[in-house]
Amino acid sequence: MDYKALVYWKLVYPITIKMDSYQGLDFLPKITAKAVGLDIKRSFGYSPSHKRFLIELLNDFSITSNDTIIDVGCGKGSAMRTMLKYTFSKVDGIELSSIIANIAIQNFKRLKVNRCSVFTGDAGQFKIYNDYNYVYFFNPFPAVVMKEVIENLKKSAQLVDREIIIIYMSPTCTDVIEKSGVFELRGIYKRTGAWVTVYSNRSLKNSTLSSNKKMIPCTESSDIKKELQLYLQNFIQPDYIDRIK
Ligand SMILES: C[S@@+](CC[C@H](N)C(=O)[O-])C[C@H]1O[C@@H](n2cnc3c(N)ncnc32)[C@H](O)[C@@H]1O
User: Do 124 and 154 sit in the same domain of this protein?
Assistant: First the structure.
């Protein structure tokens, strides 16, 4: 573990949990899918996106008050809390576990935030994507669910003409999105332990992503796709994810 990670896990993480709990908030502690009775063939567990990395990432996007975002597999709402610091007019989330979704709902009630809603249900069945132009995932579920979500996003893109930007942290099902025929891999952010892939239904030239400065653009000729395959081959699912035997 490098020095920064050590400081985070030994100092920042436990202090943040204590400070949150003092305010009646619960954003950080992980929960496995089994612990809340979820079917591990359709869901990975809860772990929050790394806040500093998410801030670095979102700072690179040209977010305006015309933009809206949904965190698919929002858990306790940790990433949504960070997204609310930006000018999105709406920051919503969908979460399968009612136990976890209720924690998120209570968190935002305590923070008195009114720009966000948390829906409870299976992302695979969720069909109301027309209101959003940014979609965020942090390694929430396996390919079987990602296929259903992408089908619904494709339908939404046909119904309401707009650019849809997908941001995917730890993109274990990138192949499902790349095979969609609608959303193409436009760029990658690399960080030890958690790469992020970014997709759009517009060409890079016609996308707001063309002004992202830290994003490594993906073109047919670039080697970055090969690097991504290598990263994913060596990717080890973290401890909050139950192993299927
Ligand atoms: C890795 S956590 C990410 C949490 C949050 N997005 C963040 O970044 O802070 C993934 C979350 O997705 C939820 N999830 C898993 N399968 C799901 C499904 N099929 N539909 C909706 N949510 C799901 C899990 O319960 C978990 O809370």
Answer: yes
* Span 106-119, pLDDT tens digits: 999 999 998 999 99
Ligand 1 — pocket residues by CB below 6 A? 42-44, 46-49, 71, 73-75, 78-79, 94-97, 100, 122-124, 138-141, 145
Q: Do 65 and 102 lie in a common domain?
A: yes
pLDDT at 243 over 90: no
Question: CA nearest 157: which of 125, 183, 175, 177?
Answer: 183
Residue 241 lies in a domain: no
Phi–psi pair at 118, nearest 5 degrees? -115, 120
The pLDDT tens digits for 4-24 are 889 988 999 999 999 999 999
* Ligand 1 center–CA 241 separation, angstroms: 11
The count of domains in the chain is 2
Angle at 135 between CA 119 and CA 243, to 5 degrees: 75
Domain containing 6: what range?
1-29
What is the model's pLDDT at position 245?
58
135 Cα–ligand 1 center, Å: 13
